Amino acid sequence: MQSQTGCGKILPARGGFWCCPYCEPGRQRKLLRIVPGMNAVNVPLYCNKCNREILVDVYRGQCFESPSPDTCKG
Fold first, then answer.
1. Does residue 37 belong to any structural domain of this protein?
2. pLDDT for 19-39, tens place per residue?
């Protein structure tokens, strides 16, 4: 997946939850609970606080920003 191809930015999780990377540090909204071994592709997450939507991939409990097709080749 992304970790193997080098595509997609790894998004940090805090306390088992993925938080919005665009909100202010310390005031980030919890959007998705991450459990070890979880896999998902192109999950749309919407933050009500900053009104942004981001597509994420989850692979083995790590959250990655879904790459756009033109930026990731291979």
1. yes
2. 888 887 767 777 888 888 888
